[in-house]
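RECORD CONTENTS
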Amino acid sequence: MKQTLSLIATGVIVVVLILASIFIVDIETVEGNQLGVKETWSGGVLPDPLQPKTYVLFPGFTQKVFKYDMSSQVFVMNDQSNDTYGAGRRRDSYLVQSSEGQDMRISLNIRWRRDPSFVVELHKTVRENVEEKILRPELMRVVKDQATTRSALDAYSGEGLVSLQSDISAALMAPDAELRKRGVIVENFVIEHIGLDPSYVEQIKARQVAVQSRLRAIEETKAAEAKAEQAKAEAQAAYERAVVDARRDKEVGVLSAQKMAEQQVLDAEAAAKRVELAAEADKNRNVLAAQGEQEAALLRAQAIKALGEAEAEATRLKLSAYSAEGSEAFVRIEVAKSMSDAFKNIDGYLPQDMTVNLLSDSFLRAVKSVVGGEAAAADQVPMRALPNR
C-alpha cells in the first residue's frame, strides 16, 4: 500500500513540474525574415528589437515576443479576385475625377516593407494594421493629388499614363515622404489600369486615331523632308566634290604650267650659261693663242736679233781679221779674184776715159780704205757714168 502511494505521489509531482515548466518557461523563435518586439510585465515594450534566433523566456508568463514580417509585401487596389496576388488583399479600385470632372477608376498595386528602425514604433502605434492605418490613406492622398491635375485623355494612356505613374512613385518613395517618416518603405508602384466611361473611351479612341493619323502624316512629311534633305545633301556633296575636283585640276594645271615655265627658265639659263661658258672658253683660247703668238713673235724677234748680232759679230771679227799683219796682200788677192770673176761677165763697153786698170785701181783703193781704215780722197778717181747703150 505504501509503495502504491509513493508511486502516485511521484506521478503527481512530475505532472506538477511539467505543468509548472509549461507556464514558467516559454521558447520563442524569431525567423530570418522577421524582427521581434519584446514586452514584459515589469519593463513594458523593450526599445531594441529582437534579431532572428531562438529565445528562452523565464518566467514565460511575464514576457511576450511579437514577431513582424520584414520582407516585401504587396498591397493592391483593384477589382480582381482575392487570390490574384497571393498574400495581397483585394481592395476596390480607387475612383477619382480628372481635371475636367471625368470619372477615372484607377487600379494599382504597391510593394512595401517595414523600416527595421521603426519596428518598435510601429508595434506601439499600429501593430499589424500598417496597410489600413498608414499605407492606404497616404496612397489615396498622393494618387488623388496627382490624378486630379490631369485630363482623362492625358492620364488614360501613352506618355500621360507614364508621367502620372512616375510622379506618384516619386511622391511615395522620396526620402522625406510621409510614409517614410512613419516607418514604411515603398519599393515600387504600378498603375495597372485606368477605367473610364465607355462613351468617353470611344471619344478618346477616335481622338487617338486622329492623333495617330496626324502623327503618321507628320512622320511621313518628315520622312519626305528627310529624303529631300538627303537628296539635297547628296547633290550638294556632288557639287562640292566637283568644285574640289575642278579646283584641284586647276591648281594642278597652274602648278604644271609654273613648273614648265620654271623648267623653261632653268633651261634658258642653262643654255645662256653654256653659251657664256663657251664664249669665255673661246675668249680664253684666243687670249692664250694671242699670248702664244705674241710670245712666239717675241722669241722670233729675239732669235733674229741674236742671229743678227751673231752675224754682225762674225762679220766684224772677219773684217777685223783682215786688219791683221800680212793680211793686205791676201785681201788684195781675194779682191782681184772677185773682180776677175765679176769683170769676165761684163758685156759691153767701158767709158771713154776708163780702162780696166783704172777701174781696178779705184776698186782696190776702196777696198784698202775699208780694210785699212784709211780713205784717200785725192787718190780717188771719180767714175763717170757709162753711156747708155
